[in-house]
Specification:
347 residues; alpha/beta; eight-stranded parallel beta sheet; 10 helices
Length: 347
């Protein structure tokens, strides 16, 4: 049976999380709930888009998809320094700053976990799997020079300098060597594995390169313009019928295989936050991986309702624990402090 574990910030809680993190291959699964309040959660948009596909309502599908992508783009216009938002939505600046702060603390938490590890037997590497398209982790990585963020773009696609995506790079280890003495130190690294693609992915000559598509047109009333803009994004839109394009299909399966392989390793830890497991592929792979008796999954539940939902999904698995905050909502900021409680928190 899965266990519900309340967090009180006690000495016992600190001892527990220290034991969990010191001796495990660490993985995170991050969903749309982590990017609040800058970007709203997906809600039931997958069901709505799937219904439009089944009804063969192409215009309705691309209108709904454009609205969804617009909500993702809106904070990135400001993040990238574009000036096409007019007027700026009320409260956007404050919401964006809050999400940036949360992700800054998240990367700081991962850095502290890796640098304070006492064992040399495990890699100084954490895998962050996410279905989010946003760029908040990459943005936070720019401000944290103490950790290497590997987003899969580490080889040149052409002479123009475009970086191409290579899923194999997530298995690389990065070390620093001293110039006077023959020593080698593994550098703390975070693999950012975006299973549904990213706002920064563009298709070029059967490769995925790091390049932003055009921002949302100021007037997107014309159906043909709306469709072209939606299709310019190299990402898997939220729908149950996910595969219509070979390049993305191959990348998606490669990344799902990486997820499955990492969870099959001995002494593995998976931390879940902001992810509802509405993605059936990822839910199925996670449940299959739970047959690995050395895998521990900690699901951080935002609310009491989420505790109930996660227990319904994973109640039969003894290596799953649902972490919750009694009488309060467990936010991303709170999770960052919980996972580093044995180190004094992120601040």
């Amino acid at each position: 049976m899965a266990v519900k574990r309340a967090y009180y910030g006690s000495e016992a809680d600190r001892d527990y999380f220290e034991r969990v993190f010191q001796s495990a291959n660490i993985n995170f699964l991050i969903g749309s709930g982590a990017s609040l309040p800058a970007i709203r959660v997906l809600g039931n948009i997958e069901t709505e888009l799937q219904r439009l596909i089944e009804d063969e309502n192409e215009d309705g599908y691309f209108e709904k998809a454009a609205t969804f992508l617009g909500s993702v783009w809106r904070p990135h216009e400001k993040l990238l320094g574009h000036s096409t938002i007019s007027p700026v939505p009320a409260g956007l600046t404050d919401r964006l700053k809050q999400s940036q702060d949360n992700y800054d603390h998240f990367l700081t938490a991962l850095e502290r976990i890796l640098t304070r590890r006492r064992t040399g037997l495990l890699p100084r590497r954490i895998n962050v799997f996410t279905t989010n398209y946003d760029m908040f982790i990459e943005d936070a990585g720019i401000r944290n020079s103490n950790i290497i963020l590997n987003d899969g773009f580490n080889r040149r696609a052409n002479l123009l300098g475009n970086d191409a995506f290579d899923a194999g790079s997530f298995y690389h280890t990065i070390s620093a060597t001293g110039n006077l003495y023959n020593y080698k130190v593994e550098l703390p690294t975070v693999n950012l594995i975006k299973m549904h693609g990213s706002l920064s992915w563009t298709r070029k000559e059967e490769k995925i390169i790091y390049q932003f598509p055009e921002s949302e047109p100021s007037r997107i009333k014309v159906k043909s313009v709306r469709k072209k803009w939606v299709l310019s994004h190299c990402m898997i839109l939220p729908r149950k019928e996910k595969f219509k394009e070979t390049l993305l299909q191959n990348v998606y399966y490669d990344l799902l295989r990486t997820y499955s392989n990492e969870l099959d390793k001995e002494a593995t830890l998976l931390i879940v936050f902001g992810f509802s497991f509405a993605d059936e592929h990822i839910e199925t792979l996670t449940k299959k991986a739970l047959r690995n008796a050395t895998l521990k999954v900690l699901v951080f539940a935002y609310s009491d309702d989420d505790v109930t939902n996660f227990m319904a999904k994973f109640g039969e698995f003894s290596n799953v624990e649902i972490i919750y905050l009694p009488g309060k909502n467990l936010t991303f900021q709170v999770m960052n402090n919980i996972i580093t409680c044995y180190l004094g928190g992120t601040r």
